[in-house]
Amino acid sequence: LCLPAFIHPQRSSFFPPPRSETIPFPPFVCGRLRERTICDTTLRDRKLYEPVITIMALTMPTLLLLAMTTLLAWPWPPLAAAQYLQFSNQTYVVCVSAWAPFVFHNETTGAVTGYEIDLATEVFRRLGMASVDWRHMLWGDMIAGLTLPVSDSARCDIAPSSIPVTVEAVLAGSVFSVPTFRSGYAVLVPVTGDSYDIWSFLKVFSPELWAAVFLTGMLLAVLIFISERDMMVRGVGKSKYPREVRRGLIEANYRIFGKLFNAIDEPRVASIASQVIALAWGMLVLVTISTYTAGLTALLTSRQYSTQISSVADLPQFRVATWDAIIKSFLRYGFVPEGLPWDTEEDGLRMLDRAANREFDALVLDEPWLRYYTNTRCDLKIVGRTFQPVNNAVGFNVNLPDAFVAEYNKVLVALLEEGFYETLESAYIKESVCGKQSTSAAIKFEQLAGLWVIVAAMVAFALLLLVIPRVIPKLDVDLNLQRSLSSFSRSFSMATGKVFPGGEVDAGSKDAASRPPRKVEDVEDVIPDDDGIVTWASRDGGAEAQKKERRAEAPLHEFAI
Length: 561
Known about the structure:
The structure is a single chain. This protein has about 550 residues and is of the alpha/beta class. The chain is about 40% helix and about 15% strand. It contains 17 helices and 16 strands.
């Protein structure tokens, strides 16, 4: 009401137009400022006050709008839930039972901590639940307290202890929240510990796989010798393997296994069938060495433990123990475990000690609990996957209003979407500090059986190359290859006018009969081999008299070109 008088005193309805240079103010303003001279301000002073009052008039509405927007956008606790449940003046009995890593109880101070405790505390804060009575008790007493009336002092209103949601509990009328953790059962076995075996390098492969490798090598050595000897018998070419059976087989086995143990580079075969077999053996050696190297590295850099149990499917053959309250849960898997009491945390730790002492072969319990306590115990190991998964949740008293459970679940879902669950899990459920562990499982023949299928196919092809020349001589691959080389040699001789480059033979010489024919037309066939030995067939005498001469002037590859 005062601002128009400050800005436009001539138009204000509070007072008449001024008759002098003095600018009057509204009476209720000047009445408060009698002691000052502002009411006697002259027209000259008006120029000083007008800008300040104008800025105030323009900024005040903006400041008021900003304050109202801030109040409306502030994340106040849900008013509906607070009004309905009266969180500010109602005390809720919150019951928990020690179960790592969800609930930890300090016997000295009585304080409770853990995964579920942190989660429940955050929910209480967001719901505005100021009065909470924490009570630690046995698991059975906690479950029973959820069924007691509100007037009973032993009741439990909320039980944030990660209670498994089972069909029996739901049918019995128990009330649960949305899942707060998904767990299941796991198999725990004792670990032998680090043991060093001087023959551990042989345990990378199973015995049958070692036998398959060596028997395959000996078989391929025999086939290579037969192929090379057959080529020499047919007069197709010269082999590096002795023709005598005993010496030939020894040489073939040396070259085959020398390739396996990296003692030689290549088996030095000449026939096509032998080359196919050598390729098959080379592929088998490549895969075998690579697999052995990887397996040996994993074996030597990991902790070793020996067990025949790898999953829940192996348990029917062994002695198994579990919590006596869940024995019936494992009947479907074909074994009846020994029931052990688990009323306190000490009972659970005692079960772990008995498992480490091998009083039974395996222990089946809740997976998160086992993960937590085996995190620092290297004498126990969880094997296989989690089976029979179950959802864990917060339990509510059956007499609580449904609206309370609904509001509680809304906050839980919001925390899940915000990643609060993942933060708690990484804080309370950690991986084992014992490092990588191995069951010492040897690589079996079945895992590499496909390699033997390929080798068998290539060997069958090589055997076919050995049989075909006996049945259809025209399809002798080795002979056709040698003739192709001879045609190249003949073409070279015809182009140069000499049988061999590097020297002519005098027809009148006494050694002329033992030397190559002088004229190209007298040569029927020219066959070079790997050592630079040239074999030809002469037309002289009407018979094929094979002669040999070592090429000293030029190596074989020049002659072949």
